[in-house]
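Hi C.,

You asked whether I'd gotten around to modeling the 280-residue construct. I have! Everything is below, sequence then structure, no commentary in between.
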Amino acid sequence: MPLVNAQALMTWAISQESAVAAFNIDTLEVGVAIARAADACHLPVFLQVTTATLDIWGWELFFDQLAYLAQHSSSDICVQLDHAAEVSKAQRALGMGFPSVMYDGSHLPFDENVRNTLTILQTARQVHATVEAEIGHVYRAGEPPEWQALTRLEDAQRFMSVCPVDMLAVSVGTVHGQNRTPQDIDIERLKTFHQHLPDTPFVLHGGSGVPDEVLSRLVDAGIRKVNVGTELRRIWWNRIDSHHGQKPREVMKNIMADTQQFAEGLMRRLHRMSAAAGPV
């Protein structure tokens, strides 16, 4: 299949009143496992990669590998740059052929975030790529707690009126890394966003560790993309830590099998949360 941007995936999610799983890919083996999971489920998926991972493996090499997986899948797979904190890196990805980029200007003053996102959006439109942005700030382990800023409705409305991105990540209480208690997640806040911006696909960052019953309510409230990274890394390290005596190839085979099983489970559960879900 040709490379697809996020528009096809978000159109599907909106029509299904569902959410698409988005997995952060740190190694090719994990990417292969996720692509196999998408084919097994016949469901769309995002393969996401950060600038830090691209710096390790090489931008062109790793993108080409993920693009190959997407093009040889029977499902819609969108390869997306995740959490680009610099305009230049988002522009570099678009110039290389990334069909979708996520620019994270949430650490910047509002107006600067808007200006930078607009610059990226203008470039993306020229190459038929899609853009995800973030308003509010989703907390990351190690940051001062006061850095977390829940998204305000007026900011989301103002941002989308000036900078109509294809997906908007909002901060409603989840955190990057393994999540805290469900009580920290402000579902009513998200419902308000969805009521006032019904055509905007909202993105949940920090999806690892969110219980299914909470995920279901978040999907009902307008989440159309769920980001997961930490749980994949836990699978990797837990397998390595518990199988010191195995041959390396056996450990890798088990990591890939566990990753595929986890991804299939999450994708199927997200789909079953949809009011329009059929068997999968």
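If it helps when you're writing up: The chain has a mean pLDDT of 89.

Thanks,
B.
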